[in-house]
């Protein structure tokens, strides 16, 4: 059995990890930390876990994290990099759901997250946690910086068009028009995510620059093997869960004869958590709610030179905790679907 620790178990990504790992046949949850709630039963805070998770929150000092096989950090940015070196030295694998190990350039991290990186030496070793791109590297890794929710949808939506230096689309004029539910802001009290503020409303944010942009650019450039340029505009929608990304790419003359539906179907044919929808489909966020599935639809309006890619995912599952469990499975040589074969919720 894999002994698992979760640092920061009181947020939305923490409770999603608990939900998924509690039904994982190869996992035992050894420790869940929270300074504020230490001593409280996890199932007391989250009644949905009654009968499934029988542990209490403990402080990070009291939790025996060094005896775990893997520790997930479902914490604010900056926490994992403070604790990861000591855990790695003890032979514990680390999976960070925040941004501490996503960006390879510590100066970029400081620019976007307003804090200095405390262990930049580990950035070169950290593997980016997007299984569909880095599966082999993840399998041999001991430190993972998980992909963000928006970056997951954008990169998977554009991957077949850019992979291995393909020249099918213009790479300097890409557009990502993305929408997310309010759970993406985390489980905290904020005026902008109050029901009376976010309900019956729709707005863009981060238009001047969003911290997921450098992550997306880094990922797409690595996929393509050359720099790309992208305009990224996120929006807040009156949903609890879900991301819907509409991606626009101009087709180059060399790509005009390409069967893009076939290209996507063939690229993702062996992927357990990417579903390329039939031609003409318009996937809905509720079709992936509670699941680790990404659904993608490829459109070429009027058979013209503009490609429109629609991508939906659950921001808390494939965009965060589910993808982290998928990565853990790869790190320990388990079937990738283990603990994640969940049918989406409807309605």
From TrEMBL:
GO CC, alphabetical: cytoplasm
Which SUPFAM superfamilies would you find in this protein's record? Glyceraldehyde-3-phosphate dehydrogenase-like, C-terminal domain, NAD(P)-binding Rossmann-fold domains
Classify the source by domain of life.
Bacteria
Q: Which CDD domains match?
A: AGPR_1_C, AGPR_1_N
Residues annotated as catalytic: 149
What pathway does the annotation place this protein in?
Answer: Amino-acid biosynthesis; L-arginine biosynthesis; N(2)-acetyl-L-ornithine from L-glutamate: step 3/4
Q: What are the record keywords, sorted? A: Amino-acid biosynthesis, Arginine biosynthesis, Cytoplasm, NADP, Oxidoreductase
> Which Pfam family, an example, fits this chain?
Semialdhyde_dh
Q: Which reaction does it catalyse?
A: N-acetyl-L-glutamate 5-semialdehyde + phosphate + NADP(+) = N-acetyl-L-glutamyl 5-phosphate + NADPH + H(+)
User: Which InterPro entries does the entry mention?
Assistant: AGPR, AGPR_AS, AGPR_dimerisation_dom, AGPR_type-1, NAD(P)-bd_dom_sf, Semialdehyde_DH_NAD-bd
Q: Where in the cell is it found?
A: Cytoplasm
Alphabetized Gene3D superfamilies for the sequence: Dihydrodipicolinate Reductase, domain 2 (3.30.360.10), NAD(P)-binding Rossmann-like Domain (3.40.50.720)
GO molecular function term, any single one? NAD binding
User: EC number(s) of the enzyme?
Assistant: 1.2.1.38
State the Gene Ontology BP annotations: L-arginine biosynthetic process
Location of the Semialdehyde dehydrogenase NAD-binding domain: 3-141
Similarity field = Belongs to the NAGSA dehydrogenase family. Type 1 subfamily.
What the protein does comes down to: Catalyzes the NADPH-dependent reduction of N-acetyl-5-glutamyl phosphate to yield N-acetyl-L-glutamate 5-semialdehyde.
Q: What is this protein called?
A: N-acetyl-gamma-glutamyl-phosphate reductase
Q: What is the organism field in this record?
A: Chitiniphilus eburneus
Protein's gene: argC
